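FAQ
Q: What does a multi-component entry look like?
A: The components come first, one per line:
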Amino acid sequence: MTLTPRIVEVRQNVLKKNDILARALRERFQASGVYVVNLVSSPGAGKTTALTHILTELSTSHRVAAIVGDLATENDAERLRESGADVRQITTGTVCHLEAQMVEEALHGWSLDTLDFLFIENVGNLVCPASYDLGEHERVVLFSVTEGEDKPEKYPTLINSSDTVIMTKIDLAEAVDFNRERFLRAVERVRPGIAVYEISAKTGAGLKEWANRLIEARNHIFPMVQN
Amino acid sequence: MHELSIAQNMLDIAQEIAEEQGLLRITQIHLRLGVLSGVVKEALFFAYDIVAQGTMAEASSLVIEEVPVVIFCPECQEERSLFRPIPMRCPVCQTKTADIRSGREIDIIAVEGV
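Then the predicted structure of the entire assembly, as tokens:
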């Protein structure tokens, strides 16, 4: 028997499985009336602190909860629980990003109808999370002033998959000689027109503006169930 | 990095296609990779060799075609290609745009085998 080489032409997205699961999640979030935000940043940019504060801020008027992904510990979940919100931990082991399937498993037995906002804190990483849709409504990328002004230009893929930029730790800007204009120019070169919010968890600056923006975005998606 | 899980997904899909088509062995996989896919080509080659070991794709080669970012320029009303994603501007008239039409692909386009 002679074997003839053959070429089979196809066109299939390698991440199709994740995309299908993410689509199902998005439909579920939509049906439950819960606005879902995926937070991405490098390790140490201040995701957990920012999230603890935004959960506290929003919980005065809305029902909030969070899922947090981490390689090994439950420390972040414990910190987030200080806000009073319901928090679930996903421990990813060696996986450097969250996938739709992990989120689906974490949601098991959770009644999403009882929530207005669900935050998903991704694993600290500015590369890998870009490729994985989690079914979120909004993807927020956080950069701290201590990371320098050109960070956005080093990670164009992630910013280009994000909807909002949050500049964190602005109380430290002066101490680290952070050039705000240069940072904003870098963001603009990579993703023209993206909204940028500047916050400090320490002084509370900018948190109210960010919370209001989230509420507005939610009301836009779910106009019938405004609070 | 996530190239290992991308390589595994890619191999699973290629094997499924090969089996459907009655191939006994995979000799080559052709992939289209967008500049904004977030996948590092070199890391993917490395990961692919590892996941292919002991499978019907062992010793096969991975052929990657890199795809530029295609943006839509609101001023020219035309699609334009960018081989670097910075700055996000029309290369002809310099108008800024965030309207990305393609460049995020991680697509298998062909599986070769016997």
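Q: Is there any commentary attached?
A: Sometimes. For this entry: The mean pLDDT of chain A is 93.
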